[in-house]
Amino acid sequence: MGYSEKVMDHFNNPRNMGEIENPSGVGTVGNAQCGDIMRVYFDIDSDGIIQDVKFKTFGCAAAVATSSMATELVKGKTVQEALEVTNQAVCDALDGLPPVKVHCSLLAEEAIHAALWDYAEKNGIVIEGLEKPKTDIHEDEEEDEEY
Amino acid sequence: MLRQIYLDNAATTKVLPTVVYEMLPYFTEGYGNPSSLYDFGQQARDTMDKARESIAKHINAREQEIYFTSGGTESDNWALKETAFAYASKGKHIITSSIEHHAISHSCKWLEKHGFEITYLEVDEFGLIDPETLKNALRPDTTLVSIIFANNEIGTIQPIKELAAITHEQGALFHTDAVQAITNIPLDVAELDVDMLSASAHKFHGPKGVGFLYIKKGVKTRSFMDGGAQERKRRAGTENVPGAVGMAKALEICMERFDERVELEMRLRDLLIDRILSEVPYTRLNGHRTKRLPGNVSFCFEFIEGESLLLALEQKGILASSGSACASGSLDPSHVLLAIGLPHEIAHGSLRLSIGEDITTDDINYTIDAIKEVVARLRVMSPLYEDFLAGKKPISATK
After folding, report:
1. Which domains, and CATH codes, for chain A?
2. Which of B168, B192, B227, B288 is the residue whose CA sits 20 to 30 A from B305?
């Protein structure tokens, strides 16, 4: 598949995989039709620091690895810092992804945002710069097949 | 060293050493061009003829009915496109199935763009075509019907003889893509009464880049390649002499051991199917339980995705394939799995294992244990499984 060693490491030994009971925020993005779904759980303390984060992913190795890496990158950060973790940062931390798999990192970014959105809504706060996440990142994609 | 278990024989097979030895002299010694008039060239021609005769014998055809090609894809393209045009004055309607290999289905798409009308027959949950559906789809302007003999993904074997007979009642021609079927099912073109049949050497331990198209005497078809007068003026291009020799040898060896090989593969196939279905919950077998290729096993494991399954199995030395979107590089899972009625999310969790004759019972048991472990690990990671366990919208109600 042409995955980097880091991708394979995170696929084989995913960090932060699991669930959080009574999470401060939880977000699910993707769609089973397209073959990838990510769910991120946050435990955020009263200072707005992400004390714990967990994920669950249905998808390819890249989807699992990007979820794992994205959760690593936001753990211990403030909500505002977590918002600044981009899909590019996730890709870079994994030493890159094959071009056809870059959308997986977008999904990971989106899953983080969805969980932050849920946290903001539950607590009646506004996180500056956070937009309501799309639940399905495939909406804009079209398959181009030629004969 | 990590043990390697090759369970992707439907993708390609190992070239048998005997086949390689048989081919070797035609690279460095008997390398003449069969079209050359001198004896050195004519020897190469004789070699081609012998290979042709041997292949013809194994499918009960006449040697002048075997045309060498570059493989299954070329044979399928040729059979579909050139026969469609050769009979276009009679009609422009062609019938095929919804579970064909892309070499057929994409050729059909191409024909649609060039003025032909294609009917794609639906299949049942096992991937079988009901002969009645074909009967109802045939029209006076139908010139050609093309049905895959045995499906490459789910292994389902079609009632080809019956389908060909129905086609002939309406005066149309019948082609079958037998790329997976050859050497796994006895093929007798006279008894089956098919008009054209495609095959590819690398699926039965021959070399890659060579195949053949059987064209029954009397069938009109145009040349697919323009150029020299090779292959009775029907397929231009200097012949792949070593390839033809290798294909003939591979076919001969496979047919010599037909009974014991098929019996072994079926025994291992059934062991794999029975144990996985009983030991891994929320699993379904794709295709028909008995009307299937001896070495084909195809499962869908709910709540998980095929590419990650393949990758995790590869790390245990097991090489297989999947019809998931990620594994195929498109957004949709395999058209075959969708055609048998699977929802997308289940089709994404597909795994195909194709057994070859050097696989042992021990290999299969090791594979079963590996599948159980990997499927369990991926399910724990899956939000779909989490939702299912929590009683939220189960995807489907199997088992």
Report:
1. 5-122 (3.90.1010.10)
2. B288
Hunting for tokens 């439907």 — which residue is that?
B10
Percent of chain B topping pLDDT 90: 93
Active site members of A: 34, 104
CA distances from A65 to A35, B308, B316, B397 (A): 15, 10, 19, 30
Interface residue of A8, A11, A58, A100 to substitute, partner B, most B CBs within 10 Å: A58
Q: Which of A32, A60, A64 sits opposite B384 (nearest CB)?
A: A32
- Contacts A37 to B, Cβ<8 Å: 383-384
> By the CB < 8 Å criterion, does B303 face chain A?
yes
| Chain B residues whose beta carbon lies within 8 Å of the beta carbon of residue A11 | 308, 311-312
Region of A110 (left: φ > 0; alpha: ψ -120 to 50; beta: rest) is alpha
ipTM confidence? 0.90
The CATH number of domain B258-389, selected from 3.75.10.20, 1.10.10.10, 3.60.10.10, 3.90.1150.10: 3.90.1150.10
Residue from A1, A9, A60 whose CB has the most chain B CBs within 10 Å, to mutate: A60
Question: What's the average model confidence in pLDDT over B14-33?
Answer: 97
Query: In this model, does residue B398 exceed pLDDT 60?
Result: no
Residues 6+ apart with CB under 8 A from B246: B15, B19, B20, B22, B23, B201, B206, B207, B210
B204 to chain A, closest Cα gap in Å: 26
User: In this predicted model, what pLDDT tens digit does every residue of A46-99 receive, in sequence order?
Assistant: 999 999 999 999 999 999 999 999 999 999 999 999 999 999 999 999 999 998
**CA–CA gap between residue A30 and residue A59 (Å, rounded):** 10
